[in-house]
Amino acid sequence: MTHGAQFGPGRRALLGAAVLGAGGAALGLSGTASAAERGKGGTSYTRLPVPTVVAHRGASGYRPEHTLGSYQLALDMGAHVIEQDVVPTKDGHLVCRHENDITGTTDVAARPEFASRKATKKIDGVELTGWFTEDFTLSELRTLRTKERIPALRQHNTVYDGRWPIPTLEEVLRWAEKEGRRRGRPVWLHIETKHPTYFRGLGLGTEEPLAKLLRKYGRHKRNSPTFLQSFEPSSMQRLARLVDAPRVVLLDGPKTRPWDFVQAGDPRTVADLIKPEGLKWIAGFAQGIGPSLNEIIPRDAAGRLGRPTTLVRDAHAKGLLLHPYTMRNENNFLPADFRRGTDPAAHGDAFGALKAYFATGIDGIFSDHPDTALLAAADCTA
């Protein structure tokens, strides 16, 4: 990655004036689309608003993450895309959890009937102790109730603790289908395969059952309202052979290696993948990347935003869109120059931070607070 490059008016200026759509949403056309694609209708990702607001685990800034309550609120707020992370159960069903370790997001630790399921495991090289989805059947998991993952920062979310069960991916697909009919437009989803190499080693590979569900609900086609994503490029390569839905490769810190690379002995790091040759390789099987926001604008030693990298320009040159992660309103997560006061749970100048990120020309952003991100996106396209 090359640092220090400053960009001009950004990607939207290159695309021409944005068109105002229904409800006042600013509809832009993706710079990764060909002229022919831009002329087509339907539900192609090239027709999504730019910048696209992806509700990270739903409206997780307001409701416990990966619950139907969180997804519904995000959709009601107007989020363009709703994210799901999927992990398997012992009997092979896909459920929506950010991690297979459900210790902090459910009441499992308080359930004596499952005390013996507590285990210590090594997941992608990291040792964890807790309760894991792969040790429960779906019927057992459905007896658990969800709760707020970070109550110290989101105490207001704890009022919803115990309200919702863990949703299955099929339940979410049915919900999206129902909401799409009610609203007269498709509900876009952003589905991530979590730890796919680890689960494949247990005989619980996630790509095949995911592809089966996508085909069942008509979300397997090139223009289906569904993104697929993973931190493991081989998972996207595998899904590319099974379905045609658009794919996004997620990228961690520059010094890290995707776990499938570690297992395969591939020496490349994320720093290699965000170079032009790495991006060209990704473009061979994916339509986008999901880097951390720090790869878009690094933070200095004091935690303040520095100067943008060339990643947006370089990715667009290879025909890739960018959906970086994750924007959160709390001081604890914001760059230092956008914090207000000293309370880590208080909201800072999220609009200022979003303006800085959107100015780089990113195609969208993952946000725990989609209502804030939508307002900031509207400011950019007004």
Task: Characterise this structure.
With 382 residues, the chain is α/β, with parallel strands linked by helices. The chain is built from 14 helices and 13 strands. Strands 3, 4, 5, 8, 9, 10, 11, 12 and 13 form a nine-stranded mixed sheet that branches. Strand 4 and strand 5 (94-96) form a beta hairpin. The longest helix has 15 residues, at 169-183. The relative contact order is 0.15.
Strand content: 5-15%
Arithmetic mean pLDDT: 90
Low-confidence stretches: 1-41
The H/E string reads: HEEHEHEEEEHHEHHEHEHHHEHEHEH
Can you give the helix content as a percent range? 25-40%
C-alpha Rg, in Å? 20 Å
Q: Could you state the oligomeric state of the chains shown?
A: single chain
State the major sheet. Answer: 9 strands, mixed
Which outline best applies?
A: globular
How far is it from the N-terminal to the C-terminal residue, by CA? Answer: 32 Å
Would you count the extended β strands for me? 13
Number of helices: 14
Topology, please?
Layout lengths: L10 H5 L3 E2 L5 E2 L7 H4 L13 E4 L12 H10 L3 E8 L5 E3 L22 E5 L2 E5 L7 H4 L27 H15 L4 E6 L2 H6 L5 H10 L9 E5 L2 H8 L6 E5 L7 H6 L5 H4 L2 H8 L4 E4 L19 H7 L3 E2 L27 H9 L5 E4 L2 H12 L1
Parallel strand pairs: 3-4, 3-13, 4-8, 8-9, 9-10, 10-11, 11-12
Antiparallel strand pairs: 1-2, 4-5, 6-7
Helix pairs in contact: 13-14
Describe this structure in a few short sentences.
By secondary structure, the chain is an alpha/beta fold. 28% of the residues lie in helices and 14% in strands.
Relevant terms:
28% helix, two-stranded antiparallel ribbon, globular, nine-stranded mixed sheet, alpha/beta, 382 residues, 14 helices
